[in-house]
## 1
Amino acid sequence: MESNIFKNTQAFAQQLDAEDALRHFRERFYIPLVNGKECIYFTGNSLGLQPKTTQDYVLNELEDWANYGVEGHFHARTPWVSYHEIFPEIVAEIVGALPEEIVVMNQLTVNLHLLMISFYKPTQQRYKIICEAKAFPSDQYAFQSQALLHGLNPADVIIEVSPKEGRSYIETTDILEAIQQHGNETALVIFGGVNYYSGQVFDMPTICKAAHAAGAFCGFDLAHAAGNIALELHDWQVDFACWCSYKYLNSGPGGVAGAFIHEKHLSNTSITRLAGWWGHDKESRFKMDKTFQPIPTAEGWQLSNAPVLSMAAHKASLDVFKEAGIHHLVQKGKQLSAYLLFVLNEINATFSEKIIEVITPYNENERGCQVSLLMLKDGRKIFDALMQQGVIADWREPNVIRIAPVPLYNRFEDIYQFGQIIKKECTQ
């Protein structure tokens, strides 16, 4: 939908909601209450809301545990010994992969470390890691500690790509220039698929192609991308990726995470990895042999057996995703953020000087659901007022409000109401 036909009116927002084929999915989620009323929840980029089926899915596993004890591994309604095997097909659709390239396990930064053990292999010549400036801190800590693990100085290893002066986000050309400049010394190029702070979607296929041309591996942290934007990890030839499930994938606080390893690496037993018994060949796993034989799929990177209770919550959300269809969700997400940008521009136009600077790209190919607002005046005061009036948003120092209307449970009317509140607060 073109922004030039948008209107900043409640009637128009309600019309968009009435025409939305996905509108009924909102009823499948618990919406938090503020002052006795459903809030406007715009922090699905931090923690997604709970599907109403989650309690039953988890309760089923608790009942099977009570009824079967250890035999639940084989006799539960969804046997625990193979529980993780129910995920690859639907997750592969969400991230654009083959099922054998997907494994659901651990948490995000654990998976990042495990994958860097395999794909960050510095030599005297090639040892640098190229990443975005202002990556999520956990990623920065992982890169630093991986450098130290190899006896290297992180200051020598990590090359951060920053926006050029006067820009709020990184141009693809900035990244390509960094890869060209440091290519002969680069071991790994790794970016967030979506920058957590600005909401910028990086040009992953172009970055990956450039990294490979320079002789480096390429990986992505998809914490803010999985379930938010269109991904084609297999076709882009991405070497590896990992993501959490508690943001757009609505799988609960600290929920089980996911990982992708490209098909071209799956059968390569010479790849260094930290091994555990759940990654061992299934046919001989319970023979308890001391020599590790990795499963020739992404499952070969597993360490431990499935955290079933967390995975049950994950399944509740993924079943909703399967029903809705990721392509439909991505399309609606872009419409929601486009309408939000329109409303923000309308607000700015009512004042003699700009009060909000959007630091998220306007180009729909460079953004997903999230829009980040740099508040030029009274940012914290406005944020606190939004929270008091039932808008749950996210504050990032020094003066950024992150807003993420997500397609499964947010409405266009939520955006209109948010605009009315923020306009009122900005005039006071």
## 2
Amino acid sequence: MIDLHLHLDGSLSKEDFIYLLNKEGMSIPDDFPSCIRVPKGCTSLEEYLERFDLPCSLMQSKENLRFVIRSLINRLHALGYIYAEIRFASQLHTKKGLSQKEVIEAVLEGLKEGLIGKKDFDANLILCCMRQADDEINKETIKAVIEINDPKIVAIDLAGPEAYRPSLYYKALFKYALDNKQNVIIHAGEACGNDSIMGAIDIGAKRIGHGVHLSFDQASIKKVKDNNIYFEFCPTSNLQTTSLPDYESVPLKEFREHDIPVTINSDNMTVSHTDVVKEFRNLYLTFNLSKDDIYYYLNNSIEASFISGVDKYKMRYLLNERIDDFYERIIKSHH
């Protein structure tokens, strides 16, 4: 399995929460663990994002940051993943005095510790700017990434409430990232429509987080194809935020008919109570996906990943070796 759209703060395990709450001398909430998952009847992306308050409060020290990324790496490896790109917003972890640079360095250290001895699995990091943050704070995120200059950081993202500001507002910010040779991803076309996606492409995005509200008009399709854009679908999350009404509404067929590459991802393993196996299971049950279909989407993830050509070749070899196992797990997991 491969996950390119996976938020660290939305993917702490129940065990992580209990360990960190005890460590920080905080009481376990009365409504635990329901308080760390999106509630039934969630009405918006904004309500969904409230689930991140508790995990972020526990991710304010270097030790805790190293712990949560190591834990996630161990769980992904145990689930049989072969690759993941894990994203987080360093600016959300500075409430107890850490600088953004210190936050990033702590997560990098934990990532590298977690990967030791993990055969046939690798992971990299993506740093998120936030739509609701001050411009200078977002620029500080990118500046810290440039200064650290570590190959395990592979892109800059823009996350947060999509309706807060249009994608084009961030043109100067992401020009700074692009001028400093950073890959760019933008959350777009989730809570907002096609204009948000087009704006994201205009400011340099190579991948679109979600993007399910793409309009299949000729001009939009041409812009997507001319810029070789990949889309990061997170179906369960989209249902929970009411971006889509049901799995039948996930535009898999429309994207494939127009030869626009889609990847399948979890978004937030704990908040959305999912993982990539569950995402594929739901799509398999909805669209009767074949093994070839599943291979197609996983291979899209390899092509979309921000790794070298040599590493993509190795990843494709692993996928070819394990596609039968992946397919069996998806088929059997719904029984």
## 3
Amino acid sequence: MTSQLIKGKNIVKDDWVISELAKVEEIVKMQAGKVVAFKLSGEDYPTSEQVKKTIFPDTGKILLPLKVFILHQEKLKERLANGEIGIWFSTHEEIHKFTEAIVDLNNFPLIAIHVEKFADGRIFSIGSQLRNKYNFKNELRAFGDVLRDQIFFLKRSGFNSYLIRKDRDAKDAIKGLDDFSDPYQGASDILEPVWKRSKR
């Protein structure tokens, strides 16, 4: 199968296995014309039941759901030190709620943010926060509902790898990295605004 992972401006092989959360029973209700999923426990998603039931490989490089890593971090210390453990979380999860449970985000060679369905700009804020507030230096990946139109702005927010949706063309998505030649504002990828970078 052709890789959908973009790093820099290249399509590369993905060495990481994404550990999916365990499935749980849902109650689905209609509210304000939208389908809203309510978990039977009433807990935030993912639930503690999901976290406890999530299984993952004993070897190899794995991307673990954030809460699953926190639950198992004592037994994962050696694998983390060997660069085999990354974490992922969804755009509705607030990273500041979990930072006290993690010694140093830079211990992870990879942090990935999952977009279930692109509907707002939370992923851009999360990327910028990880780079600028928490000084995360390693690979920052976007995955899930990731499309060409977003990729330039994801780069500006601090992302440096992108797992493009399976039904889209990763080669075409790479072109999105050059949609704008010289961005005006400063951001995570180019700190200074254009008026400070250009001599007049």
## 4
Amino acid sequence: MHALIVVGHHDPQSLTHALARQIAVGLANAGHGSEIADLASEGFDPRFGLADHAVHRRLAAPPADVLKEQARIERADALVLVYPIYWWSLPALLKGWVERVFSNGWAFDYEGGITVKKLRGMKVHLVGVAGADRGTFERHGYGEAMRVQIEHGIFDYCGAEVLSSTLLDDSEGADPAPHLHTAHRLGERMFADCEVTA
């Protein structure tokens, strides 16, 4: 099995990148493959522009960079997003990736007031890295707000299934070892219900 791990952080030395690498190591230890999509180092442009608007309106084909990302997703058996939580949501780099790549005609069909979900069968794992502690999330309802926005508003809209959503809280002051262990374990168990293929 193969996972596409998409990293939405600009700093390759960040905890976010270390978590993505641990997920990849866990997958490899369990006999699976992965690809890390480092959006920042690859220079992905997250700005939804005129070309993307034309795709949404069915006036043009997706740009080459979007087609490349869609092909990477199609090759994967699971999509894993690893990202810092900025202002209680995805960082702009990753949100822009979603806005451009999950386009009308590929992720969903919307025409005449009817939406067809085109990503049924896609399996998704979310790994959010938070500076705040879990109590803050619960007290203010941030966790539920993020579930509605990301799990329902993005993935359910397209028909994808979020199999896990991991919140790694209090990441700025704590020892990173437990978070790295959690990421490694997620990788090892990601395809636990599937047979390993040669």
